[in-house]
Recover the amino acids of this structure.
């Protein structure tokens, strides 16, 4: 409870001070961006140099949920377009570390391109990976012109509005779809300074946590429903992001993480989806979706492992420690590794 109150007071005071001094609203103001270790700094700058010449790839619509065929043109196009989310997160972070105007220009181009192209639907899964654009925007928001912000802020507000009216079903209200919806809603409400909305969403997240990850052993509703680590970890990814900025549900999120890490460490990763209650899982397995295979690929849990230890000091679970030891060498995990180091260094970890 103290952590939650501290977090709310932090964001409220940050929003209040923003009238006189523009500050980040997701990233802690105490972060020293010049404190990044040399190996991560070299890799971050190298990636930023490589990525900033690529033009943005925004789409008017995204599609992934419910698609069975991995070769579906809409799915392929959506995945390619959402590569912009990781790209802009790396570029924005590189800008804060080295203050290169070319990084800022590329970040601005991506954010404004998406805000003037993509039409929000509020879909919990299709839009989930837009989260990294919000983290990127937080880093550069104070550097952008009023004209740029007048494009991006209303776009984010429209996403928030659409998500607030999304019609959940009996299952989706309890599973990862609701978790991923709350993740975007919380991030957007905080970055827009809508603190009353944020407090309401945090209360909703605490109630959802009891329904979604309230099992004493950390098993999620998603694991029970799908009989697979894939959806448990996908759900955990969203919880880790919510927990990072709210500290709303620490004990339950930690237990859900340990449930996954214990299964992976013990080798209990076979016969995935065997008792799934959702028919699309078998259809996707037959169609060749890699995630729906009988054997869970533990590398898919690396993002959750990194985020679960961001903002937290102390010894992590042994499986998580193994992931951390090799995470910095994977460019797909680079943003999460950089964010973790910057955040934890600011805490004195």
């Amino acid at each position: 409870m103290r952590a939650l109150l501290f977090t709310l007071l932090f964001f409220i005071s940050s929003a209040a001070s923003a009238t006189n001094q523009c500050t980040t609203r997701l990233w802690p103001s105490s972060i020293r961006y010049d404190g990044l270790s040399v190996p991560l700094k070299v890799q971050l700058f190298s990636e930023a140099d490589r990525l900033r010449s690529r033009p943005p790839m925004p789409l008017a619509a995204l599609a992934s949920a419910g698609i069975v065929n991995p070769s579906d043109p809409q799915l392929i196009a959506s995945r390619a377009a959402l590569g912009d989310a990781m790209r802009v997160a790396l570029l924005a972070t590189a800008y804060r570390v080295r203050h290169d105007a070319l990084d800022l220009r590329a970040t601005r181009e991506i954010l404004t391109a998406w805000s003037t192209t993509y039409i929000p639907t509020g879909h919990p899964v299709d839009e989930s990976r837009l989260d990294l654009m919000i983290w990127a925007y937080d880093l550069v928001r104070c550097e952008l012109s009023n004209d740029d912000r007048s494009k991006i802020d209303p776009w984010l507000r429209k996403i928030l509005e659409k998500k607030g009216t999304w019609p959940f079903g009996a299952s989706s209200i309890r599973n990862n779809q609701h978790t991923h919806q709350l993740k975007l809603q919380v991030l957007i409400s905080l970055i827009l300074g809508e603190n009353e909305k944020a407090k309401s969403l945090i209360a909703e997240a605490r109630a959802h946590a009891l329904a979604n990850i309230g099992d004493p052993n950390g098993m999620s509703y998603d694991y029970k429903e799908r009989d697979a680590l894939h959806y448990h970890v996908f759900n955990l990814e969203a919880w880790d992001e919510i927990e990072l900025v709210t500290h709303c549900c620490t004990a339950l999120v930690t237990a859900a993480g340990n449930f996954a890490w214990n299964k992976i460490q013990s080798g209990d990763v076979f016969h995935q989806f065997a008792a799934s209650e959702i028919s699309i899982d078998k259809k996707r397995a037959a169609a060749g979706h890699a995630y729906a295979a009988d054997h869970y690929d533990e590398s898919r849990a690396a993002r959750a492992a990194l985020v679960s230890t961001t903002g937290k000091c102390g010894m992590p679970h042994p499986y998580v420690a193994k992931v951390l030891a090799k995470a910095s060498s994977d460019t797909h995990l680079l943003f999460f590794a950089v964010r973790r180091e910057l955040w934890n260094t600011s805490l004195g970890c």
